[in-house]
Amino acid sequence: MNDTPSNLIIFDDVSKFYGEILGVNRVNLQIAPGITSLVGPNGAGKSTLMNLMTGLLRPTRGNISILGVPTDQPERLFRNVGYCTQFDSFPRGLTGREFIKSLLLVHGFDLQRADEFTVTALDRVNLLDAADRKVAAYSKGMRQRIRLAQAIAHQPSVLILDEPLNGLDPMVRAETIALFRKLAGEGQHLIISSHILHEVDMMSDRVVLLNNGYVVAEGNIHGVRNEMEEHPMQILIRCDNPSKLAARVFDQDHVVEARLHEDRRGLFIKTRDADRFYLLVNRVVAEGEINIETIAPVDDDLSAVYQYLIGSEGA
Amino acid sequence: MTPTADISVNPEKQGVPWSLWWRQVRAIFRLEIEKHFLGKRSILIYLLALLPVLPLAILAPFTPPGREWQDFTQYSMIYAVLYGGLILRTVVFFGCAWIFMNLFRGEIVDRSLHFYFLSSVRREVLVVGKYVSGMVTSIILFTGSTVLSMLLLYFPHFYSESLRFFLDGPGMGQLLSYAGITMLACIGYGAFFLVVGLFFRNPIIPALLLYGWEWLNFLLPPLLKKVSVIHYLHSLVPVPLSEGPFAVVAEPTPAWIAVPSLILVTLLVLFAASYRIRHMEIRYGSD
Questions:
Q1: B152-166 burial, b for 16+ CB within 10 Å, e for fewer?
Q2: Structure pTM?
Q3: CB pairs below 8 Å between A and B: how many?
Q4: How many domains, in total, are found in chain B?
Q5: Contact between chains at A106 and B283 (C-beta distance less than 8 A)
Q6: A181: chain B residues, CB-CB within 8 Å
């Protein structure tokens, strides 16, 4: 698929200030279809960015467009966009079914289509059984799911989900993640904020790391990790002769540290150029001097990137 | 899930926007009207609407003391006082304040306004849908209260005279005039309070200021009198009342000017509301 403005979510030098307080500053992003996760500590600007994307907030400076539609035109924007917010409140007195259906009618769908889409959305979030109960009587997890149903009910091609896995039990979390992957596989945009790094790592095609209102990194997680030259990549090699391997790698200029594992059956390597290191390992294996059992990067994941860039472990 | 490519599914491609807007106004109206009549906040407007009706209903079996109550010709004046002092200035004013200020402010307090903002609906259409729902609610309740209270005043004590008064005399004309003034008041005050609810975090203060301005209207010079809703409504009452020895006398505005003026001002105020809502952000924390 071509990356044209009609296929991208574009932030063009976007800043948002709440009076004197910084929300986000100088954000430039181009987000392609797939799952993009917004990651950062509390107050980093994740929800601000999502609210800007959906026109609930107006940028102090810069422009935002979603698939070519500016965010100050809700009547066009929300034909393609669904937003599951973190606001845990609902119009009073409605059942789950009435809630979804009445909002579909506000979108402009006719009664028959609204009924049909309501059932589809409730089914997708496994809430059909509770559809005719008042939303006010729902558990936290059910309220989260009904919000998700509201976001997907009109079948948008861009889904913006603020902490969508909060309050869900493990089984439903797994199903929801599978649903996200399915939607992304169909070519949709999913923008998800989460503080559960291993889940983000598992489902995201790319991440946007935010801290104090600034985008500190964005892109494919391995790409982001590779660009962090000040933090050499850590690799653990399990082999029968780690001392000999250490001697082989020490003379490489890109290797900055080699340390034996506590059980003396492995070697930790820190390298500034993982690709060259892997080539070296290939040569060693080909020479037949050392039997290598496993080789795996230790800090080539979101948790490590988060720790290096933002300074804490996240959740 | 498939993107909204199907023409019959996508409102954008359904052609004439008027039909889409009409559907959306109806959907918003349906949601809102249910809230007005069945929501927790509706108790107060029911009480207000019953305020003139209940005492009259309770007093209906009894003959009130006082000479004026024995004289049927005085009833037009008694109702004019009741209407001007209680129904128009209190019931309709505060009823409209409650209904219309809560249209947006109530949802900001409940933190549920964003659901409307996340729908593919023009914000101007949202204003129209909400305003019409408030207007219909207030007109049903307060016009009903106006009509019922008038009938309850006349019929229990002078049944046959009242029958003649309403069927052959000026009674029906007066009843329709009062009902019409109540409707106009709902339209005018409604628009004002809708905007107040949008522009002020605490709309009670501007509402009370307007209340004071409307009450003191009789003291204002003729030009300032025209900057009020009550002046135009008073110009339309079928039984004019003296406003007391301190009142500054001004010519009543003819109905052909008063009615269109009120409607024009209402439209201008709704235009301001639409502009405001178009640029509104959702920041519940700061509201």
A1: bbbbbbbeebbeebb
A2: 0.87
A3: 126
A4: 1
A5: no
A6: none
